[in-house]
């Protein structure tokens, strides 16, 4: 017998075993369905016989004899369905007293029995709705986003520490032995030296930094101000920074700002209307005095009024943020 023929026989044996087991399983499924339909939902083989799932075979046999006396058709004449119940009791007892049959039933007893779906027995699967899927996706993507934020924060902190180390190296040397006093150094933020079109060497991006004798490092601005450099410059990761919470926060702020902005604009419009009414009915004493170039040169108000009257033009004043015509003198 060659190897291929041996494998073929083994495959046939496995197939027959699977088919037989499937047939036995279907018998158990049918029996469970009919038992629940007749005795009540949730009724099991063990509960019907009034024994525990760990009962021994003799205990099951005694329980069967006791139950068979109760359900015997001779003791229950005229009871509808008594013959089916008695026959079902015999099948249940046979399955539980058989080692292989009881093992198969115990498997479905612990893991659940599939239900008939018209074309076969299927387990009831959880089918999430749209809301569940949305919550799941938001949770998973937010978790990945938070991990990315943590990684970015660690990278930024490492970058800051690298810059601090470079500044101290430039100020104190490779041994990093502290030196008293303040030292101003240049630190390359990144990028190596390169050449321009004319062949001149262009260093990377350099910044001025100040290293104190106690180890504090500062960025030196062009105006002479100093900004401390440290891990506090990196933005730490937080749940509020994840995309969904940040999106909801920004949308809420936008809507809230739009509502408060409309209220503010409404108040400003009312103020403008009030100022318009005052300007339209006011007198000369209500108008602000204007400063003309003649006043700036030391001339009096009389000469300014004369200049305005001679020009024949109406002065314009600002009221409520808008240019309006001044009221003519009577």
TrEMBL record:
Membrane topology value: Single-pass membrane protein
Cross-referenced SMART domains: DnaJ
Superkingdom, natural source: Eukaryota
Principal subcellular localization: membrane
Subcellular location: Endomembrane system
Bilayer-spanning residue ranges: 129-149
Alphabetized Gene3D superfamilies for the sequence: DnaJ domain
Start-end of Basic residues biased regions: 320-330
Biased composition, class Low complexity, residue ranges: 302-319
Name of the featured protein: J domain-containing protein
Lineage: Eukaryota, Fungi, Dikarya, Basidiomycota, Agaricomycotina
